[in-house]
Amino acid sequence: MLTIKDLKVSINEKEIISGLSLEIKAGEVHAIMGPNGTGKSTLAWAIAGNEMYNVTGGSITYNGRNLLEMPPEERACDGIFLGFQYPVEIPGVSMANFMRTAINEQRKYRGLDPISSQEFLSRMEENRKLLGIDSKLANRSVNEGFSGGEKKKSEIFQMAMIEPTLAILDETDSGLDIDALKVVANGVNKLRSGKNAIIVITHYQRLLEYIIPDVVHVLYKGRIVKTGGRELALELEQKGYEWLKN
Question: Can you tell me the distance from the alpha carbon of 224 to that of 220, in angstroms, rounded to the nearest whole number?
Fold first, then answer.
């Protein structure tokens, strides 16, 4: 589904990603771990197409297409979802209107008619119940006045509604208490399927107690320096990241 070869990414002429290679297949969950400033979020933004991040080398192939030739909005319509580390507020725009607009943009891109009101409301209710989201969420402005936990739950709800092929969750566990963490992880697990893939970016092993990854990568100084199974996350929990400097 996603193949990254020798990727190099710079911000303000400073190289952050320095020759990163990665392959993710449909049905897989990959965790990317590493200390602050090592390029985890830069990788997420480069895949999503943020123009602040300048790809200076390498390639990204997504479902057989050159992802780097696709503008950000086309990447989103083609099934790439980015869950933000710090979700933004959109005052005056209800969650329902926001999600309906997003879904219809995807459908337009795929040559489909707009979603009917009945189908949309049914999908809203189904996903609300699946994720244990309060029914009042749909009438609130997107993330406005939400707690940190509510914002992260909202992100997972958006993911469920959009049904992406590739979901990138950038430090979804940041700032969550244990109860909110379990809700978010449970939602992600329910959305896993053989047709999609998920990248989970995190500092800590605790999230991976609830979202069991197929593969764990350690990102350090812009490169993946170690790859393994969930046991690698446990090793990082015990040793920290200092051993990477050796």
Answer: 6
